[in-house]
Amino acid sequence: MDPELEAFVPLLVKADLTDPVTDRKNYAERAAAAPAPNTTGMEIEDRTVPADPDVPVRIYRPNGAWGTIVWLHGGGWVMGDLNSDHHFAARIAAGADTVVISVDYRRSPEHRFPAALDDTYAVLTWAAEHAAELGIDSNQIAVGGHSAGAGLAAAVALRARDQQGPAIRFQLLNQPLLDDRQETWSQRNFTDTPLHDRDTLTAVWRHYLGSQPATPYAAPARADDLSGLPPAYVATADSDPLRDEGITYALRLLQAGVPVELHQWPGTFHGSLAVLSADVSQRQFAELCAALRRALAP
Length: 298
What we know:
Number of helices: 10
Order of helices and strands: HHEEEHEHHEHEHHEHEH
CATH architecture: 3-Layer(aba) Sandwich
Largest sheet: 8 strands, mixed
Helix content: 25-40%
Number of strands: 8
CATH topology: Rossmann fold
Distance between the termini: 39 Å
Mean pLDDT: 96
CATH superfamily: Alpha/Beta hydrolase fold, catalytic domain
Strand order of the largest sheet: 1-2-4-3-5-6-7-8
Oligomer: single chain
Structural class: alpha/beta
Strand content: 15-25%
CATH class: Alpha Beta
């Protein structure tokens, strides 16, 4: 493990996911303790997207921004909200010179699949249909996220393709959660890794799906056909149960003719990007922002 990251491991607490309300509170407290991002010169606006039910969003507009990303927070579909993801969304906006629409999708287990996907798709559709009002280009909209949010981004790209929905320029998938089957080598062997391990991810899928069978819109790794999807940047972490499903998904995208940039970060673990003082975390953020900036360049 990267020595700068290893020093933080004893301070990390895994969510056991038996009490989602307490887990959310703890998650929010940890997020609030993160260094505040620099939002100088950035317009930040909270809005509500009309849907059934309405979806809260937070829009970040850096000076001179081009392109837009519909951004989806992590937290295993159970934890996280606009406030806990503020540091991530603001840094993506500033680093990529991109308008970020951060989505407060409904969380499980109170709202199981497809609630979060429906919320995300409603926001994507709203952004495309109201591009002129929002001052964005409907042809330069990306989707992206971290962990469960990255899984949602991959799912909404599949749905938009299948339903001839809004055009998506790019998908930014950071440590994506894609496969409920948990059969990869990393899923079977990483049983005591920091923040997330096989058991916590089993609980995440149980909360998200309940008794429903998984479909490709819930677990994109189950999709048989990945052709016609937007170009992708996929980032994976070394000591992460999700590592191999992210790499496999990237390879399948490539085999389906989709342009892909894949970056496997050695010495890292799931969510270690939050350790902002580490050099490897700074490089990860820079790579995410650079990939997005290139993809949305006019």
